[in-house]
Amino acid sequence: xxxxxxxxxxxxxxxxxxxxxxxxxxxxxxxxxxxxxxxxxxxxxxxxxxxxxxxxxxxxxxxxxxxxxxxxxxxxxxxxxxxxxxxxxxxxxxxxxxxxxxxxxxxxxxxxxxxxxxxxxxxxxxxxxxxxxxxxxxxxxxxxxxxxxxxxxxxxxxxxxxxxxxxxxxxxxxxxxxxxxxxxxxxxxxxxxxxxxxxxxxxxxxxxxxxxxxxxxxxxxxxxxxxxxxxxxxxxxxxxxxxxxxxxxxxxxxxxxxxxxxxxxxxxxxxxxxxxxxxxxxxxxxxxxxxxxxxxxxxxxxxxxxxxxxxxxxxxxxxxxxxxxxxxxxxxxxxxxxxxxxxxxxxxxxxxxxxxxxxxxxxxxxx
Length: 367
Known about the structure:
Helices cover 2% and strands 49% of the residues. By secondary structure, it is mainly β. The longest helix is centred in the N-terminal third of the chain and has 9 residues, at 4-12. 29% of the residues are buried.
């Protein structure tokens, strides 16, 4: 971030260990009451602010999650994998003015902390209005929201082509509905699906998954309008970056499986992309090529560029993959490109912080 070091120094001088808020008596008289508010009550915890207005893309009402570090560093949590990113700095002076320098926003914010604030809830006032931060919004505890691009290799008018479309993955136990907002004129109603770990995930529906883009869209902010079981509504956002992925070489994809009534054994081969830091997994799909309800999903694995890869999928018990003798199935090869700075070996984030994926679906034949 530009000049971040110098801004940290400036704000560091304004930090104080604690402050006292004086609560005056009512207009009818009464003694003054000392209200102590420690700056340590702000630090090293998450503060949530939601000002949901409507489900339009243009309205600036996304949930903000800040963490005020004791050294003056300001962090913001994004909902794609719940990753914390340093975005600036903050300060608190003796006049109870909280200064938030979030460099992802257009201007420095100055808020007066109201005397009714507590260590779990702060009320902020300024000439621009009022904002309330809470240390928890329980409905959002397990929510993640990711937007990324899919480069799909498929047969179109007799020729294989690779084209882009959007994909979304939103998780959370208390979600009732989700709408993905790509722009003021482009939105998608997501459908609830079940992933390989039996978790509910909201994704693009089959009809919208066939709406391909004219070209690589570049960097874009995607917003999500969530309606919860409680009736509350929230808006989240995620960033798609200006980073592309190569197309899977469909000519190098091959599958082979056994036949009979024994356990299914399927071997899949493909050529790794020339792109760096790409990870791969394989799915078995039913005869309808239903990508939202795969029969089986393998673990993911890295690979060196342009090397031949293979993966053997075997049932532990007959019928484990959901196929009966005579069933037709498809095999889907997926190459994942994560956002910059993401190490998929650190934590369980292989479903989050995805920048783009390349995929190809091939007929597996009849079992």
